[in-house]
C-alpha cells in the first residue's frame, strides 16, 4: 500500500503517506480477537468497573453485528471481530481548511478513495502542526478528533478503545454507520458517502431500539435529533448568510466586517435558544465557529433527507434501499445530488419526522439577526453602515 501511494508524491506528501501507512499498520498489528479479550476480562470484571464496562460493550457489539446482518442487510464479514486499545482518545484527527472568505474547502486527493475536504492524522500534534501551516497560508482551520473510520473492506476493521465504551445506542449507531460504507462508496463524493452512512446509522438504531422495546431510549433519541436538527437549521442559515457575503461584489475589508456580524449574530442566536439547541451539548462547536467548522458539519448532513426519502420510497426494505443507493453511485456527481434533493424540503425531512413524532408540529429556530443578512434591502443597509453610511448606492468593491 505504501509503495502505491508514494508514486509521484512530493516530499511533504511522502512524509504524510509514510505517517498514514505506519499509523494504519500500528492499528492492524494491535488487533486481538474479541473472544480472547472477553475471556481475559471475565476474570477481571468483578473487581474492576472499567473492565466490566469493556466486557459488556464488547459482548453488545457482537449482538449488534448479528442484528445488522439479520435485519439490516449489512454484512459485517470479519469486521469488528477484533479489538485494539489505542491508549488515546481518538484514532485520527481530521483537519479541515477553508479560505477566509469562502465556503469552498481545501481538498486533498488520495489513491482509490478520491478527494476529500479533510485530511486525517494518527497523531494530534502532526495534525495541529499542519493546521497551523495552512493558517499561515490564509486558511481557517478546524481539527477534530475521530473515534472511528472505515477502510472500505481493504482491512478487517477492529473495534477501538476510542468508541467501544460509548453508551449502547451510540455504539450501535456508529457500527451501522461504518458498515454502511461497505455497501456503497463513491470516490471523492464525501457528502454522498457520509450522508448515506449517517442515515443508515440513525435508521438502523431506530430499528434496533424498536426490536428491543426500548421506547424511552427512542424518545430520548428523537429529542436529541430534534435539537440537532434545530442546530443544523441555524448553521444552514449562517452558511447562507455568509455565502451571500462572500459572493458579493464588495471589497474584502467590507466582507470581513460583514462576516464578523454574521458569526456574531449566529452566536447570539445560539445563546438565546441554547436550551432548545442541546442545552450546552454544542457549546464547543459554537465557541470556535468559523468557515472550517461549518464545512465539517455540512459534510455529514447535507444529503441525509434525500436518503430518508429514498428509504421511504421502497417501504423500508433495506435490500431495495441499498440497490437504489448503488444505482445512484453510477450517476455523475450533479445527477446524483439532484436525484437525492428532488422533492426534499430545505429542512431535513428525516429529522423533521422525528421532531413531529415528539411534538406533533414543526418548531423551527428563527434567528432575526441572521435573517437581516438574507434580504437584499437589509443586506445593502449593512453595507452602508460599514462603508460610512453613504446611502447613495455607491459601495466599495469591484
Keyphrases for this structure?
398 residues; three-stranded mixed β-sheet; three-stranded antiparallel β-sheet; 8% strand; disordered N terminus; disordered C terminus
Describe the structure in your own words.
By secondary structure, the protein is mainly α. Helices cover 58% and strands 8% of the residues. Strands 1-2-8 form a 3-stranded mixed sheet. A hairpin with a 3-residue loop joins strand 4 and strand 5. The longest helix has 32 residues. It starts with a helix and ends in a 12-residue tail after the last helix. The N terminus and C terminus are likely disordered.
In short:
This protein is mainly alpha-helical. The chain has helices at residues 2-6, 11-29, 34-44, 49-71, 124-136, 168-180, 190-211, 215-246, 252-272, 283-287, 291-301, 304-313, 318-328, 333-341, 349-359, 368-371, 376-386; strands at residues 32-33, 82-84, 92-99, 108-110, 114-116, 119-121, 139-146, 159-160. The strands form three sheets. The protein has a three-stranded mixed sheet.
Amino acid at each position: 500500500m505504501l509503495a502505491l501511494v508514494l508514486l509521484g508524491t512530493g516530499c511533504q506528501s511522502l512524509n504524510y503517506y509514510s505517517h498514514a501507512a505506519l499509523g494504519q499498520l500500528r492499528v492492524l498489528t494491535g488487533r486481538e480477537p474479541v473472544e480472547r479479550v472477553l475471556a481475559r476480562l471475565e476474570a477481571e470484571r468483578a473487581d474492576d468497573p472499567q473492565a466490566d464496562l469493556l466486557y459488556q460493550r464488547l459482548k453488545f457489539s457482537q449482538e449488534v453485528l448479528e442484528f445488522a446482518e439479520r435485519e439490516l442487510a449489512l454484512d459485517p464479514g470479519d469486521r469488528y471481530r477484533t479489538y485494539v486499545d489505542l491508549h488515546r482518545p481518538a484514532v485520527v484527527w481530521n483537519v479541515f481548511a477553508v479560505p477566509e472568505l469562502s465556503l469552498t474547502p481545501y481538498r486533498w486527493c488520495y489513491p482509490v478513495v478520491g478527494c476529500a475536504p479533510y485530511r486525517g492524522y494518527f497523531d494530534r500534534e502532526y495534525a495541529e502542526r499542519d493546521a497551523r501551516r495552512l493558517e499561515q497560508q490564509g486558511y481557517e482551520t478546524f481539527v477534530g478528533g475521530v473515534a472511528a473510520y472505515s477502510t472500505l473492506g481493504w482491512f478487517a476493521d477492529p473495534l477501538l478503545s476510542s468508541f467501544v465504551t460509548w453508551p449502547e445506542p451510540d455504539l450501535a449507531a456508529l457500527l451501522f454507520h461504518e458498515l454502511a460504507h461497505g455497501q456503497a462508496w463513491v470516490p471523492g463524493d464525501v457528502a454522498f458517502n457520509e450522508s448515506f452512512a449517517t442515515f443508515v446509522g440513525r435508521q438502523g438504531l431506530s430499528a434496533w431500539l424498536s426490536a428491543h422495546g426500548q421506547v424511552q431510549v427512542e424518545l430520548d433519541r428523537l429529542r436529541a435529533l430534534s435539537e440537532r436538527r434545530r442546530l443544523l437549521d441555524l448553521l444552514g442559515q449562517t452558511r447562507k448568510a455568509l455565502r451571500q457575503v462572500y459572493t458579493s461584489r464588495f471589497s474584502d475589508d467590507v466582507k470581513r466586517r460583514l462576516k464578523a456580524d454574521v458569526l456574531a449574530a449566529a452566536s447570539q442566536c445560539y445563546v438565546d435558544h441554547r436550551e432548545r439547541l442541546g442545552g450546552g451539548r454544542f457549546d464547543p462547536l459554537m465557541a470556535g465557529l468559523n468557515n472550517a467548522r461549518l464545512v465539517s458539519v455540512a459534510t455529514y448532513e447535507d444529503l441525509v433527507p434525500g436518503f430518508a426519502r429514498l428509504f421511504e420510497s421502497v417501504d423500508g426494505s433495506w435490500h431495495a434501499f441499498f440497490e437504489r443507493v448503488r444505482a445512484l453511485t453510477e450517476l455523475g456527481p450533479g445527477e446524483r445530488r439532484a436525484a437525492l434533493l428532488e422533492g426534499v424540503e430545505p429542512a431535513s425531512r428525516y429529522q423533521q419526522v422525528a421532531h413531529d413524532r415528539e411534538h406533533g408540529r414543526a418548531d423551527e429556530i428563527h434567528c432575526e439577526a441572521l435573517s437581516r443578512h438574507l434580504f437584499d434591502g437589509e443586506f445593502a443597509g449593512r453595507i452602508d453602515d460599514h462603508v460610512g453610511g453613504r446611502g447613495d448606492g455607491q459601495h466599495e468593491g469591484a
